[in-house]
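Q&A log
Question type: sequence-to-structure
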Amino acid sequence: MEGDVAMPKLSTLPPADMHWQINLRDKVIAITGANRGIGLGIAEVCLANSARCVYSLDLMDPSEDFAALSKKNPGRFKYKQMDVTDEESVKRAIDEIVEEEGAIHGMVCNAGMTKHQPALDFTMAQVEQLFRLNVFGAFACATAAARKFIALGIKGSIVFTASMTSYRPNRAGPSAPYGGTKAAVRNMAHTLAMEWAEHGIRVNSISPGFVRTAMTYAIERAPDWELKMKYYGGMPRLALPQELGGAYVYLLSDTASYTTGIDIPVAGIVGAW
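Response status: OK
Response body:
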C-alpha cells in the first residue's frame, strides 16, 4: 500500500444486484504488450465483450494491426508507451490511465519475449534479459496495479500470461530459461492471489500452448512440424491469439468473483508436449 495508511477491507462477496452475464461492461483494462501478437488478440476479445476502454501498454510503437483495431473501436482502444522493466514508467502509465478514465479494473501482465535455442548456447546476459522482462516486469505491473486497486477501493483482477512450457518442455522449440520464467510467473500468481484476496483482488494466469505469432514463426515451418502434429493427439495447428481471449475475459469479469489463484491452460491438448 502507498504510505502507512491502513486501508479498509472490502467484502469479497459479489454485490446483491450482480449481473451474471460474462462481459466487461464499464471496465477499463490495461494489457502490456498489446500492440501485436497475443496481447493484441486479447485486446480484440475484451473490446468485443463490451470493455469500456482497453489500453495497450507497450514499449514498441503501435503496429498496423493495432491501428486497424483502434479504428474499429473509436475511443476505446488506446496506447501508452511504457517499459515494464522500469517501475516509474509502470506507475506513471497506470496513474495516467486513472486520471483519464477515473478508474482501472483489470491488468493483464502479458508482455514477454522468448529465444529458442539449446541451453548451452545461452549467455547469462540473455538469460537475465528474459527474466528481467518476463518475471521482474510482470511483478512490477502486478504490484503497481494492486496498489492502485487498493487506493481506489476497486476489487480488481490481474491476469498473467504464463505458458504451457511452465509445465513441461517445449520439444518443438526448446528454451530452458523461457520455461523457467513462465514457471516463475505461474507460481507468483498463486502467492499474490493469497496475499491480496483480503482486498478483493483476484490474481490468475493463462498458459497458452502454441499460438501463431511472430515468436512462433519458425516452429510452424520446421520440416517435421506435420509429423509432430500427427502424434500430439490434439488440435493439429497453432491457435489464433483471439482464441485465448475468452479465458482472459472470464478472469477479468465480475462473474469470476470467486476464481483466484488458478492457471487455465488454453492449449488444444497440444500445449508444449
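Response note: The CA atoms of residues 22 and 254 lie 8 Å apart.
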